[in-house]
Every structure is written in structure tokens, then in C-alpha cells.
């Protein structure tokens, strides 16, 4: 998988979903004026922007391992403390933030328990640690239609259902293993309407994430077969695509 893609390509691929999800996620995490918050795995800044709108740039920091995203976010929000770093090695002192949030990131952490433990470390005692991951295992991800078509055509394809946190109850288990307290969970859902099939399909071909990398690696006949099957599965345009995410909040 790769996230070494231009920020605008990722925004077209996932931003239409992650931006409205960020609002609901920040609400569930209890983000409010007067807090300082860290966005872990910020990408090009869907959640970071929501946090800045609520708290002001001086109260928000962000970390992201992908250089194109770091550059794009720095240009987009120059007054935010943006650093190139992974979740498993956060470049901040203990007890720095009132809240630490990770939107659509845990399933891509090299070591999710270590990443969540680091999030707790930099959060003040009693502060909030929150995370969300699409329900890939339950077929409720925005990517589920495309993955379904891929596995129908090639049953040996490995989709994202087995990634950490992408199945019911697993985020809670990871939080417990990381030593987090008072874990609460919910499901957050968003819906995006696409005006035509090409508007939906084209972002999948840019190489972002596991699905994008899979599609980019197909030869042209296989890619066309996948495209045709997706078109059969989707409703006539305009059509809605819904995404639901397992979501947790806990106390450091």
C-alpha cells in the first residue's frame, strides 16, 4: 500500500468521506474550545481543519508520515505545528495534549497497540484518546463495493477486512491492550452522493491506499473488468455511497 501520492489525489479518493466524518468524530471525542489537541496520521488535513476551526491553529498539532501530505498540510495550515512522524513514535513530551485523535489511521499503524499507547502517553491524565476505522469487515466501508467486485473476480484478493480495528469490537480490544481506560464505542456514518460513475471510479485509479495500489497494479483488461463489475453493482447515477466507521473514545 502507498500513501506517497499527491494530496489532491488522496482528497478525491477519501476526502469526500473523511471530511464529514471528521466533524462527527470531533463531536464524539468531545473537542471543544480551550483544549489542545493532536491529530495523529493527519493525511492532507480533513480532521486537522475541523480541529483548527474549533480550537484555533495554536491549539492544534498534527503528525503524518507521508511527505506529500506533510507538505500539503503545512501549506494549507501554516500556523499548525505539523511534524513528519509515525503514531508509534510521537515527537512530543508526556502529558502534552488534552486530546489525541486518529481518524482512519489505526488500521495502517505498524503496531496499533504501540500507536495507541503513544497517543495515551502524550495525552494528559484524564484526557481523551479517540480513534475510528471504517467497517471493512462488515462491508460498510465506502470502499466495500469496489472490494466486493475485486474479490468476485479474483477470490484470492486480500481486501482490508482483516486490518486492525476494521471489525466489530477490535478497536476496543486494541485500546484495552494499550492500557486505555473507560473505553466507549459507537458507529459513525456518512453518506456522499455521486453524480455519475466516472466521478466515483476515477479516484480509485490514483494509487492511494491498499485498494488504489491494487487497482494500479492490474493490467488493462483486469482493470476494465473490475470497472465493469463495479458499474453493475452500483445504482444508476446519481447514487449514494455510505460509509460507517467503528469509533472509540477512552481516557488516558
TrEMBL record:
Residue limits of the Methyltransferase type domain?
Answer: 38-130
Pfam families attached here? Methyltransf_11
Query: Does the keyword section mention ATP-binding?
Result: no
Question: A single Gene Ontology molecular function, please?
Answer: methyltransferase activity
Gene3D superfamilies from the UniProt entry: Vaccinia Virus protein VP39
Biological processes, Gene Ontology terms? methylation
Which key words are in the record? Answer: Methyltransferase, Transferase
The domain of life is Bacteria
EC number(s) on record?
A: 2.1.1.-
Q: What is this protein called?
A: Class I SAM-dependent methyltransferase
Provenance organism: Nocardioides hankookensis
Amino acid at each position: 500500500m502507498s500513501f506517497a501520492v499527491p494530496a489532491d489525489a488522496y482528497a478525491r479518493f477519501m476526502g469526500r468521506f473523511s471530511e464529514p466524518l471528521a466533524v462527527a468524530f470531533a463531536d464524539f471525542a468531545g473537542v471543544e474550545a480551550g483544549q489542545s489537541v493532536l491529530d495523529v496520521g493527519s493525511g492532507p488535513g480533513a480532521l486537522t481543519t475541523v480541529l483548527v476551526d474549533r480550537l484555533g491553529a495554536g491549539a492544534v498539532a498534527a503528525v503524518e508520515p507521508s511527505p506529500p501530505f506533510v507538505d500539503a498540510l503545512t501549506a494549507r495550515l501554516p500556523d499548525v505545528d505539523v511534524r513528519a512522524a509515525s503514531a508509534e513514535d510521537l515527537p512530543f513530551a508526556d502529558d502534552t495534549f488534552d486530546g489525541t485523535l486518529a481518524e482512519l489511521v489505526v488500521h495502517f499503524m505498524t503496531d496499533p497497540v504501540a500507536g495507541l499507547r503513544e497517543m495515551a502517553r502524550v495525552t494528559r491524565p484524564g484526557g481523551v484518546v479517540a480513534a475510528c476505522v471504517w467497517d471493512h469487515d462488515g462491508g460498510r466501508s465506502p470502499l466495500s463495493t469496489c472490494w466486493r467486485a475485486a474479490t468476485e473476480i479474483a477470490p484470492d484478493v486480500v481486501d482490508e477486512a482483516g486490518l486492525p480495528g476494521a471489525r466489530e469490537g477490535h478497536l476496543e480490544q486494541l485500546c484495552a491492550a494499550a492500557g486505555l481506560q473507560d473505553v466507549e464505542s459507537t458507529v459513525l456514518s456518512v453518506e456522499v452522493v455521486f453524480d455519475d460513475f466516472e466521478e466515483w471510479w476515477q479516484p480509485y485509479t490514483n494509487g492511494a491506499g491498499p485498494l488504489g495500489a491494487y487497482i494500479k497494479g492490474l493490467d488493462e483488461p483486469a482493470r476494465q473488468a473490475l470497472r465493469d463489475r463495479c458499474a453493475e453493482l452500483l445504482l444508476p447515477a446519481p447514487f449514494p455511497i455510505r460509509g460507517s466507521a467503528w469509533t472509540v473514545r477512552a481516557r488516558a
